[in-house]
Design a protein that fits this description.
The complex is a heterodimer. Chain A contains 18 helices and 5 strands. By secondary structure, chain A is mainly alpha-helical. In chain A, strands 3-4-5 form a 3-stranded antiparallel β-sheet. A two-stranded antiparallel sheet of chain A has the order 1-2. The longest helix of chain A has 29 residues. Chain B is mostly helical. Chain B has 7 helices and no strands. In chain B, helix 2 runs antiparallel to helix 3, helix 3 packs parallel to helix 7 and helix 5 packs antiparallel against helix 6. The N and C termini of chain B lie far apart (58 Å). The chains are: A mainly alpha, B mainly alpha. Chains A and B meet through helix 5 and helix 6 of A and helix 6 and helix 7 of B.
């Protein structure tokens, strides 16, 4: 048995079984959730590369799998990443069960995470670009509601992913030309420009951000948020691994400076646009753009920024989860998430609305939310470099806060006064309340989160 | 293969990719796509042996087959809006010629980048990349976007075949073509799929 078999191919096999069982919805939901949890548990419990003894039996989970002359490598240190991704998946599956999300979430969700792990594990690392191309295809099916064709935003997303893959493969090939003894700086710069272009396509980095807002507006909010969390963070991880394997480039070209600047630009753009948005889905898109910007800024302050990025990923995963669950419920009630359609919904569904406010204000960095201490630390690190940079970060947070306040005012408008009947506390609302409580605990005791994420940070240091 | 034949293939690829942008009937489009994959294979054969290069045509024709079956299921062969009106044809052709001219001006510089490639391979690859991008620029329908992406990928593969011959990469790129075709089929038939819950 080897680690890639366990955490890449076995989930794919389970996804196949879930597809076969699609006539039994309850089975699919709980089997999907159970298997994601089991994969997270296995990653937590099974050491890679050392002998495990259980009574008379003993075996070793080896770290690599050779495949057509290339290899997939999952090291002992990578177990924390496996735990993170499969735990997030099981959390999203649980939200899916609560929100009666279409069944395709479970098999395709498992396929998506196994593709992210494949992208992370494959050697040479640039092969990951192709696997993210496959993940984009899976995402297109996830994002398109059954019975209607893919939206314009989804097709733009797919187009950008294919173009990004091509740029990265070209750049990786150009990089292989660079002679380490007599480095041709022009070639290195050309390679990095192409690489930057590739990752900009893949991640929706400015000026290719349009698909993020389009996806958030036109597609089911739950699936959009799921793709944002999984796809974008998967690609970020790929970028991080790529960068950590080619650190010598940093001595020749300043990559981190432009990365930080673009990140700040995205934070500012997302924040400012959040102040004027009149659609709840687009508001989530703006928050994702801000989060993406923050991630880039955290990357640019390496290695200290990694201590912020990984906890931020956890907070983002939970915040977007409960936020999108609320939006799904609102969409079912109002038919559309435009502001004029959701007037007064907070009076009719106060508990459900908590998911939106909890998620939005956490990402906006409101004190006592899970995001606040992380954003504060990121800002502090930036001030040590230049105070102007920290100001842009602040602009992003303030923009989201103003957007959040506008959302509160729309959702609590008088037109939708209370109906007199209390909102029943059911499973989705319990999950939303637990999510909000979890985010508050993370905001009050951030050191626990940072400590939990420390093994992931150590992988890239 | 003699250089004159290769030049002929490059010219043929340009006409085919222009045809993809202009035609209004899906049967024509699928036929042109088949011929385009044949041209791609012939250019790749300059760098790879036939038994490896044939993977490109197998994957490409498989993708076309997947697409075609979806159209047969739909029973509708025309594309709306119709690009085959005269002003449309003239405008699109003009853009394609301009793109070809700018690619040919960039061509000598590109030759220095792809050391192991022949001039025809570089020109053919760049032309398909450019024409695919133009196709993407014009496309509004999801299936047309997929055809544009397949053209871009084909152009890329001609260039990439001159620098990378790994079996896994070849298989993955072939799977990319087939995957995109399945997405196109999904987009075509999505309205007839069973809605769950």
């Amino acid at each position: 048995m080897n680690a890639p078999m366990l955490w890449i191919f076995l989930p794919l096999a389970v996804a196949g079984i879930l597809l076969i069982l699609s006539r039994k919805p309850t089975w699919v939901r709980w089997l999907g959730f159970g298997s994601a949890l089991a994969f997270a548990g296995l990653a937590r419990a099974l050491p890679i590369g050392s002998v495990i003894t259980l009574g008379p039996w003993s075996w070793e989970v080896s770290s690599q799998l050779a495949f057509f002359g290339r290899r997939f490598l999952i090291l002992e240190a990578d177990r924390s990443l496996l735990v993170l991704f499969y735990s997030l998946l099981s959390f999203w599956f649980l939200l899916g069960i609560a929100g009666s999300i279409p069944l395709k979430l479970y098999p395709l969700g498992l396929v998506a995470v196994s593709l992210v792990i494949t992208g992370y594990a494959v050697e040479p690392v640039f092969y990951a670009a192709i696997f993210f191309g496959f993940l984009a295809m899976v995402s297109v099916i996830l994002l398109s509601p059954t019975g209607s064709p893919p939206s314009a935003g989804v097709m733009r997303f797919l187009t950008f992913q294919v173009l990004g893959t091509i740029c990265i493969l070209f750049a990786a090939w150009l990089l292989s030309w660079v002679d380490l003894e007599t480095v041709d700086k022009t070639l290195v710069i050309r390679t990095m420009v192409l690489m930057g272009l590739g990752f900009s396509f893949l991640l929706g980095i400015f000026p290719f951000t349009s698909w993020i807002s389009m996806l958030a507006e036109e597609n089911p909010p739950f699936f959009s948020a799921f793709v944002f969390v999984l796809y974008l963070n998967g690609v970020l991880l790929f970028a991080l691994k790529y960068l950590s394997q080619t650190t010598w480039i940093l001595g020749w070209v300043d990559i981190l400076g432009p990365m930080g600047t673009v990140g700040l630009l995205m934070v500012a753009i997302g924040g400012i646009s959040a102040m004027f948005i009149t659609h709840l889905g687009r508001m989530m898109g703006a928050a994702v753009i801000v989060e993406l910007g923050r991630s880039l800024v955290a990357y640019s302050i390496r290695p200290l920024g990694f201590h912020i990025y990984f906890p931020m990923l956890v907070v983002q995963g939970i915040a977007l989860g409960i936020w999108s669950l609320t939006l799904t419920s609102f969409q079912r009630r109002a038919g559309d998430l435009a502001y004029h359609r959701v007037h007064g919904l907070a009076w009719k569904s106060p508990l459900t609305s908590l998911g939106l406010f909890g998620g939005l204000f956490t990402i906006a960095g409101l004190p006592f939310g899970g995001g606040f201490p992380l954003h504060w630390s990121l800002g502090t690190m930036l001030i040590e470099n230049t105070s102007r940079s920290a100001l842009w970060l602040f602009v992003g947070n303030v923009g989201l806060l103003i957007g959040g306040i506008r959302t509160i005012s729309v959702l609590s408008r008088k037109g939708g006064a209370p109906t007199g009947r209390g909102e029943r506390l059911d499973f989705p609302k319990v999950l939303i309340l637990l999510g909000c409580a979890g985010l508050t605990i993370m905001g009050l005791f951030p050191h626990l989160l940072v400590k939990w994420a420390a093994p992931m940070v150590s992988i890239f240091q | 293969m003699p250089s004159i034949y290769l030049s002929f293939i490059v010219g043929f690829l340009f006409i085919l990719s222009l045809g993809l942008i202009l035609v209004n009937d899906w049967r024509w489009m699928m036929g042109i796509l088949c011929l385009q994959y044949l041209g791609v294979m012939l250019l790749i054969m300059e760098s790879w042996p036939l038994e490896s290069a044939v993977i490109k045509i197998v994957a490409g024709w498989f993708a076309v087959a997947v697409f075609s079956v979806s159209y047969i299921n739909m029973g509708d062969w025309t594309i709306t809006p119709d690009p085959a009106q005269l002003p449309n044809v003239l405008f699109r052709s003009l853009i394609a010629v301009l793109a070809a001219l700018s690619i040919s001006s960039f061509f000598p510089q590109a030759l220095n980048w792809f050391i192991g490639a022949t001039g025809e391979q570089v020109l053919g690859g760049l032309l398909l990349l450019g024409m695919g991008l133009i196709h993407l620029g014009f496309a509004t329908q999801s299936t047309r976007i997929i055809v544009g992406l397949l053209t871009v990928l084909s152009g890329f593969e001609i260039l990439y075949a001159t620098v990378e011959a790994s079996v896994l990469m070849t298989a993955l790129l072939a799977a990319n073509h087939i995957g995109l075709a399945f997405l196109g089929a999904y987009a075509l038939n999505s309205s007839s799929l069973e809605v769950e819950e």
